[in-house]
Amino acid sequence: MDRFSVTITPRFYETDALGHINNAAIAAWFEVARIRFLESLGENRPETASDWVLANIHIDFLLETFYGSPVEALITGVEVGNSSLTVSCDMMQNGRVTVRGRAVLVHRDPLAKRSTPVPEDLRRQVAAYRA
Predict the structure, then answer these.
(1) CATH assignment of 5-128?
(2) For the chain, which residues make up each domain, given as ranges?
(3) Distance of alpha carbon 94 from alpha carbon 125, whole angstroms
(4) Is 44 helix (H, G, I), strand (E, B) or coil?
(5) pTM (2 decimals)?
(6) Which of 3, 8, 10, 80 is nearest to 37 (CA)?
């Protein structure tokens, strides 16, 4: 599988008083990248969207990200646990990594409201993914 990326077009209202993209907007962009990545694997369909919950997110702001230039959200790694996926992502603008993040998603049974093992077909797809 090829590297997965999503292009984000910064919107003016996502800027803060200092003129760069607000940190909350960056967190939302990471969510867009994770969801699109899961969709590319056949996950996050309407009937399975509630099967994943965000357990943890870590974001390192390396450089400022600005309005006016597209941002590429590039999935750089995926690790499968028993009932979780850890998804790593870099945000790049004008050829430079501006933000690096990692999120842990837990697979759960929406009716029982408890974690469940990651499905085997998804494990195989992630194993085939090359960051």
Answers:
(1) 3.10.129.10
(2) 5-128
(3) 31
(4) coil
(5) 0.88
(6) 3
